[in-house]
Write a structure and sequence with these properties.
There is one protein chain. By secondary structure, the protein is an alpha+beta fold. Helix content is 18%, strand content 43%. A hairpin with a 2-residue loop joins strand 2 and strand 3. It is globular, with a radius of gyration of 17 Å.
Amino acid sequence: MINLEFIVKEEQTRNGFLSIENLSKMLLKLSSLESDIANDYMQENKLLWMIYSWDFQLNREIKTGEVLEISTWVSEVSKIKLHREFLVKSKDEVVAKCLAEFLIIDANKRKAIRVPKQLMEYFEINNTKLLSVERVEEFEIEDSTSYTVESSYFDENNHVNNSVYIRWIEKFLDESSDKSIKSLKIVYSKEINEQGIINVGFSKNIEYFEIYTKEIKAKGNMFLF
């Protein structure tokens, strides 16, 4: 288990509350501190980490200026997925529980592989689970908008960074609602690896969303405060 403190800055917020996009960046910064111990192994074997899904569950909105203590640990390893839990506290109050599923990608073939046993020697498994993996519940899309995929959205793996998908969702909310996200589940199914136009569609009650071009790139469920 590893812990780190973060101070919520004004530029990280939507309407005075921490955005899910920036929460995800905090969580990834923390997890990378632990995962970095395996960097040499990953590079030697031409492997990459890739997020398959995120699940964010907030107990309340997180305000500008709050000091967050975030803890993370690996809770489970299946054939091709690694589960990482995140516990977010503010002054000993649990304000959020989050779960990320990671894949190990062969950099040459751009395909997920079985989690190597040698890789797991770098991590200690803590069986404490904060959240269970839930399936995305699908509904009919009734509203949609489009955004431009900018060159700055691409990361070192030459695909749109996972946090940008969340940015598009929150941007839609900025245009349609003043409420914050209470829970967000997103599953990434296809990479976005070229510039162009991306569509973001929502169900009637904004409980279900899809991010797509000619095919679905990601989908998920969301509830607001």
